[in-house]
Amino acid sequence: MSTTKTAMPTTPEATATTINSSTAHDRLTIILSILAVVITTLVIITAIFCVLWRRKRNNHNHHHRDLSGFHSPIETGQNGIPQQMKDVIEDGSRTDMRIGVAELTIPPRTSGPPAHWHEMHDEVFFTTKGTVRFHALDGQTIDAKVGDTMTVPTRSPHTFSNPFDEEAVFINTYTPAHYINYFKMLATMGAQGKPMNPEMNRKAMAYFATIGVSDDEMKMKKEP
């Protein structure tokens, strides 16, 4: 018994359909390849532009910024903010706001800002003149003399003062740098003649993820 195999007839319509599908697939492949080249080129151009822009920005204005006419004009020892910002060493513009650095002074026999803690940034204090007294919870105090460093992590209640007879100067870092804008706000409020009592100071701090702490919570002792 023999078996005969018959080939399926190929119609012109079927052949035409096969050819058209293959052509469409080739066209789609070409289009996708062109798009990939265009996108890759745009990414490279954008990356080069960003590098050049950042390099230009980093090379611009590397000198320290004198804030003698910038900080709050409020008189020393009044309104809860006696410390004066002498100089902004780094305002964050050259570090993508990763760190800010400023130099501040505290006149003799004056208190610092209301006690507070920071939700989003760490601080480091480095005393360069006199002695800065730091206050922590439960009435703890630490006197930082010239060359001493004090690190204040996030959520650590603190404040500082200068109960001594000599002016105190310290370098203060902020990581990230956004808290420097708090001092700018104080300067603006002072220039506008707005009263700056401890309560207003706490409200200003709140704009920069900083929470005020009462003296009772800190158990701070009154200084002479």
From TrEMBL:
Which spans are transmembrane here?
30-53
Database matches in InterPro entries: Cupin_2 (IPR013096), QDO-like (IPR053146), RmlC-like_jellyroll (IPR014710), RmlC_Cupin_sf (IPR011051)
Please name the SUPFAM superfamilies in this protein's record: RmlC-like cupins
Tell me yes or no: is Transmembrane helix among this UniProt entry's keywords: yes
For this protein, the record's PANTHER family field holds: PUTATIVE (AFU_ORTHOLOGUE AFUA_8G07350)-RELATED
Starting at the broadest rank, the lineage of the source organism is: Eukaryota, Fungi, Dikarya, Ascomycota, Pezizomycotina
Q: Where is the Cupin type-2 domain?
A: 104-173
Q: What is a single Pfam family found in this protein's UniProt entry?
A: Cupin_2
Q: Which UniProt keywords apply?
A: Membrane, Transmembrane, Transmembrane helix
| Entry protein name | Cupin type-2 domain-containing protein
